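We treat protein structure as text, and this decision shapes the records that our systems exchange. Such a record has a labelled line for the sequence and another for the backbone structure tokens. The record that follows is passed on verbatim for readers who wish to inspect the format:
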Amino acid sequence: MLRHLFLLLGLRIPRFVRQTNYQANAGTYFLEVADFNNDRSLDIVASNNVSGTISIFYNKGNGRFYSQKIYSTGGKGSDVDTLTVADLNCDGYVDIIAPNYGLDYIGIFKNKRGGTFAPQVTLFTGAGSGPISVDTAYLNKDRYPDIVVANNKVDNIGVLLSKGPGIFDSMVTYSTGPGSAPRSLVLADLNCDHKDDVIVANRGGSNIGVLFNQGGGKFGSLTTYSTGAGSSPRAVAVVDLNGDDKLDVVSINTGTNNIYIFFNSGDGTLRLTKILSTGLAPRGVAIANINNDRKPDIVYANSGDDNFGLYENKGFSKFVPQGPYPIGYHSEPYGIAVGDFNHDGRNDIATANFGTASVSIFLNAGY
């Protein structure tokens, strides 16, 4: 009845069908999407921080996935919350980079081709550092990606410049502020100088921090933007939301149950433009065109409400809420990712469900 009412009112509500759940390991926390076996279908890797493992789900080509393949990050106590993917050795195959909060190292899983990965090689980040989030970019302009890590326990970000295929120089650190407890970071060019900057969500400081790239993999001092008292920003994403060819910043704030949108003034200076309400305890955010209108939309995981939500980007700083979309009792979704899993030209949704140690796939059926 409700959907018929929406149709009578002329409202178009995105539909997601065929929720499929796949068992992972204890503490499923975060996920990333990539084509690991070069078969032109998107696969999924999920971190399981309680069991100290990662799970890889290979796509059958139709939006359905094979059962997990499991790799150890160091066992219980290793506590891998997040991860990222990149071709670190330029062999044409995507590798996995997993910051190990519990054991103070970054684990690198080299793709051996054909759908298998070598056991992790580790990069030490310092005793008691608590590495919790990583991203990669070409910071020193050689052909190999560099790594930047958020060290949650010591309030800094660490830069590891590549020296060759899978080889990195000693870590250089930059402060994110006393008590900042950086939780999530991304690398992107905010000031249009063709150098990737660091954008970091500081959970302890309740702010977003920006460190501009000065060239050669060196960064300037921190500039911060408040996300509100008690906001505890959990994740950050960067994308051009308003079509002005400048990258904007989105923060998901677990403490205040909202999303902050900062538009880019053009020189990398950010201005708070929108505050959007979410469900209870949002943790994960992803940005992609969900409704095929060529504008990036915002999807987010509400861990306290066992669902995910969607804000459709209507342009002119207008974001229309859709959903929520239920995942299941006690699912507690922490991570969310987007990709076209079944080759139908529409972006689908995947969630990492901490409560049920599972990954859920929601195929996009349009309107």
The chain is about 0% helix and 50% strand.
